[in-house]
Design a protein that fits this description.
alpha/beta; three-stranded antiparallel β-sheet; 11 strands; globular
């Protein structure tokens, strides 16, 4: 067994990680329909019982997958997402008025997250600029005779991501499509916690394969793995 030196103090337990997540905080989570979401962290957050969360994620996953249980059990007061169609309980909560949902086109959503991570003041998009109900009071900016809506950047108190490998500094490598929104989410948290399948000694990762530099990652937790049975169901 290879001993991993925790020289940067970034490797912590799941219990330590969820201690940073409290009632009312904003939580940004990587993933797409549950794929690429950090299962152990989300389960621990659910078991801790925190609520009144503002969730920023691609979607609300499925009722029992990914961020789905947090939404389904009423732990989320507001969700900023591209869709909720795969989670009918989220739709019911929206209808009942127990969940506020800010819908954002998927491309715009990830660009707002990227803007947050890069420290930009916003992005200009033409989606919805000619429709008052879509513009929803957003600032209109004219550039070279063309009108755009100003979409504000997204940041969160805590960002949670899921990666294939990490070293003790927090450099991350992702696994195929599970990469999805994770690299951008990792940049946009005031604190970023990465759940990883494997922690390797410093220097073992191919520098050309690293997607998220460790400078964006505050803490690393060892994952207990993903039960992929739900995919086939």
């Amino acid at each position: 067994m290879v001993m991993i030196r925790n020289e940067y103090g970034k490797i912590i337990s799941i219990e330590q990680a969820v201690s940073y997540i409290t009632d009312g905080c904003s939580l940004m989570v990587g993933g797409f329909g549950g794929v690429g979401s950090p299962p152990a962290l989300l389960q621990a957050i659910f078991e801790k019982g925190v609520g009144q969360l503002t969730l920023i994620c691609n979607d609300t996953a499925f009722p029992h997958i990914g961020v789905g249980p947090l939404v389904s059990q009423g732990r989320v007061k507001k969700a900023i997402v591209s869709h909720i169609g795969s989670n009918p309980i989220a739709g019911q909560r929206l209808h009942d008025g127990t969940l506020e949902v800010e819908f954002c086109p998927q491309g715009v959503l990830v660009e707002r997250i990227r803007a947050g991570g890069a420290g930009l003041g916003g992005i200009l998009v033409d989606i919805g600029v000619d429709y008052e109900w879509l513009a929803n009071g957003k600032q209109v900016v004219e550039v070279n005779g063309k009108r755009f809506l100003l979409e504000l950047p997204l940041i969160a108190d805590i960002s949670l991501v899921y990666a294939k490998k990490a070293d003790p500094f927090g450099n991350l490598i992702y696994d195929k499509s599970a990469r999805n929104t994770n690299p951008l989410v990792a940049m946009a948290g005031t604190m970023t916690i990465a759940e990883v399948e494997e922690i390797v000694p410093l220097g073992e990762l191919d520098p050309e394969a690293i997607v998220t530099p460790g400078v964006f990652v505050n803490y690393i937790v060892q994952s207990s793995g993903v039960n992929w049975k739900w995919i086939w169901e």
